[in-house]
Write a structure and sequence with these properties.
six-stranded mixed β-sheet, alpha/beta, single chain
């Protein structure tokens, strides 16, 4: 078979014998939600799980409300989802003067006024108080100590609100398993040390992309909301691999979010019967493969489809090389695979986690990298450099035999292979 893979702004064509290809793994598309505002308006009255917003307001009789929204690093259509939610709150008697919209920046930089206006919409920005969360603010509220020993410091506006609501999105996440739901609180509006202490658990067993059950990092986030800083109502959108919103879930912060995960799996997971000797994958072309810091997500996800001792053939241009200062610094320390793992586990540094993930992956399989990075830089990222397209297939046949098995993943960053149980 002849397959086309994106590489930067170019296309790469590979001719792989049919006998060697178990499947081409591509996610299924969904039917986009026709009217997002109407969908939200319906959900506040008839939620996916839990009581309606009217029942919640009737019980709590709030004078103040905080609505947590994503920052610009997420594609959540907040400006479309906010108005029907705000209209319902005001209809139920919550005054606009008592409503604050808090941008869940986590440890990201604050957004400018123009960015914030674009995120929430002109009308909302003009009428309501909108603030960026500051993870280093001196007035964070100490909500108590989690069972893990992590001290939960939360944005004051959120902590002191009578009613807490969140608009978010169910997405795959490296170590939280999935975004959405509880992440609006932790890390969304938490203090820096609270967030970093949580993220240090990314090396714990059971922590990984697409995993929430038995994931101690995610479970700490759940505890933070369940026992310390409750969310009273959420709205989370779910997209397919083409970024079409195929569903919005709303209501109970945990039950609705879990229902969103069920939908996400349907449209973004690719079931496989077994793992293969080889996986050919592209990060998806520019800008997804502009550097390894960005492109690595595709590699990490595709690794679910390769057997121990197998080979990931990774097509990523990497025009900007590493893409993160700390990542590059750690790579150039030449720690070796075991040394990088040991160093990171002993000294958590955000940015170095990408080298840690690459090292762990390189212990399990070979990463054959076709990119613009030189041989030395490729090796410092624990990859073998593929010098020529023409040499790739013969080298694999020599390594695994003429009948080697493989999967092809044209869009590595948006499909997660999952072996059938």
């Amino acid at each position: 078979m002849k397959t086309k893979l994106k590489w930067g702004r170019e296309d790469i064509f590979l001719s792989i014998p049919d006998k060697n290809v178990l499947a081409v793994l591509e996610p299924s598309g969904g039917e986009p939600v026709a009217d997002l505002a109407a969908e939200v308006a319906g959900l506040v009255k008839r939620p996916t799980a839990g009581p309606s917003l009217e029942e919640i307001v009737s019980t709590h009789k709030p004078e103040t409300a905080a609505i947590i929204v994503n920052d610009m690093t997420r594609s959540t259509p907040t400006a479309e989802m906010l108005p029907p939610l705000l209209e319902e709150l005001e209809r139920l008697g919550v005054p606009s003067s008592g409503i604050a919209i808090v941008v869940a920046t986590g440890t990201h930089r604050p957004m400018s006024d123009d960015e914030t206006r674009q995120t929430v919409g002109d009308a909302v920005f003009s009428k309501y108080r909108v603030e960026n969360h500051d993870c280093d603010s001196p007035d964070l509220v100490d909500m108590g100590t989690l069972s893990t020993g992590n001290r939960l410091m939360i944005n004051r506006t959120v902590a002191e609100a009578d009613l807490r609501l969140a608009i978010g999105e169910v997405l795959l996440h490296y170590y939280a398993g999935f975004a959405g739901g509880r992440k609006s609180i932790l890390p969304g509006v938490a203090g820096r040390e609270t967030v970093m202490t949580n993220h240090r658990m990314m090396t714990a067993p059971g922590v990984g992309i697409g995993i929430v059950d038995g994931n101690v990092l995610s479970e700490e986030m759940v505890e933070a909301v369940r026992d310390f800083c409750p969310l009273h109502f959420i709205l989370n959108c779910v997209s397919d691999s083409s970024k079409h919103i195929v569903r919005v879930v709303g209501g109970h912060w945990y039950d609705a979010w879990r229902e969103g995960i069920v939908t996400f799996r349907k449209f973004n997971f690719a079931p496989i019967a077994k793992k293969a000797d080889v996986v050919f994958l592209s990060a998806g072309g520019f800008p997804k493969d502009i550097n390894m810091y960005q492109a690595h997500k595709a590699l990490y996800m595709a690794s679910r489809a390769v057997r121990p001792g197998g080979t990931l053939v990774f097509f990523a241009e990497l025009a900007e090389g590493y893409g993160h200062k700390v990542f590059e610094e750690w790579a150039k320390r030449r720690l070796g695979i075991d040394g990088a793992i040991e160093a990171f586990e002993a000294d958590f540094r955000f940015g170095a986690h990408k080298l840690y993930y690459l090292a762990r992956l390189a212990k399990e399989c070979t990463i054959l990298l076709y990119s613009r990075s030189g041989r030395e830089d490729s090796e410092l990222m624990f990859c073998e450099k593929a010098e020529s397209l023409a040499d790739i297939l013969p080298s694999l046949a020599e390594k695994y035999g003429e009948n080697f098995t493989s999967y092809v993943i044209p869009q590595g960053g948006i499909v997660l292979p999952m072996e059938d149980a």
